[in-house]
């Protein structure tokens, strides 16, 4: 019987893990059964969910899996059973199954936790998953049908991280198109830090502040949300912001399957892994993407929950899972280069290099690069076997 690699998840990390494992098996001319279990055979381009037309931001994966010999099972994993090297999963019709593995690659991603603040789960929107981002987009598009009020014209974005910033700075232009150029709209970012972008370099922070001011986006800093209800947001200092549209972008946690593996995890639930991306204490289980707490270098930096890191983590995890079955030397994960390219709405964008976030491009130049990255570079390769395997090499240039 062929050895089996089972990959849980078909996001950036899961997709690339499958292709990378298939590539190494093909290169060594030794067949391995590579299976992906995920809710749908498509890559959902999550980094773009702050944009319009969210439902178009997907890329089909079945043709790519077909030409590379990857088997796809539609469903979701409910339980990991390391003792018997099995997972329990439920298919699209609700039927339960067990699937054996010789190597497991956990690439099940992450999600926003709206339960950390009273009322957020019931009354806040998010752009974390395709379904919830679609609901948010439809809600924003329908605002013009609501009676004129300050609450209708105000959007509160909870969290000033990259997701919150991209959403907030996209909104002024979108609201003008929906509510009219003369509407007195308001976009407010609630941030618990002392200043906008306070966790990043001064150069990047200054750009965020400049772009926010030019677009009229307000920041409430040193602020935390006490509760969310149908009328808006109440902050812990007692300030009430009336709003029909509260968007939640904080509290991102690794998928709950990580808790089923007896291994160290970080505060976001990510599994500690070694240089080969094996879960500590579990040689047969690899973690990748948003579920992996992985060192990117020897300087103390760790991969972030971004597609930039997920893509390369996926390639290394898939390669190393296959290598362990083929008696081939693994490739230790390294990702020395770190960049950011942050969309800042009508103002443009900002591009930085290095963990110290040196600003290299701004405004229109950075926007052009941002569009290229999110509309071309992060998408799956064409469904051509040789071409797909070429870019699935962990040492290939960034796709």
UniProtKB/TrEMBL annotation:
GO terms for biological process: aerobic electron transport chain. The keyword Transferase does not apply. Residues 4-311 form the FAD/NAD(P)-binding domain. Residues 1-21 form the signal peptide. GO terms for molecular function: NAD(P)H dehydrogenase (quinone) activity. Its cofactor is FAD. It holds the Pfam family Pyr_redox_2. Keywords: FAD, Flavoprotein, Oxidoreductase, Signal. The keyword Kinase does not apply. Belongs to the NADH dehydrogenase family. This is FAD-dependent oxidoreductase. The lineage of its organism: Bacteria, Pseudomonadati, Pseudomonadota, Gammaproteobacteria, Enterobacterales.
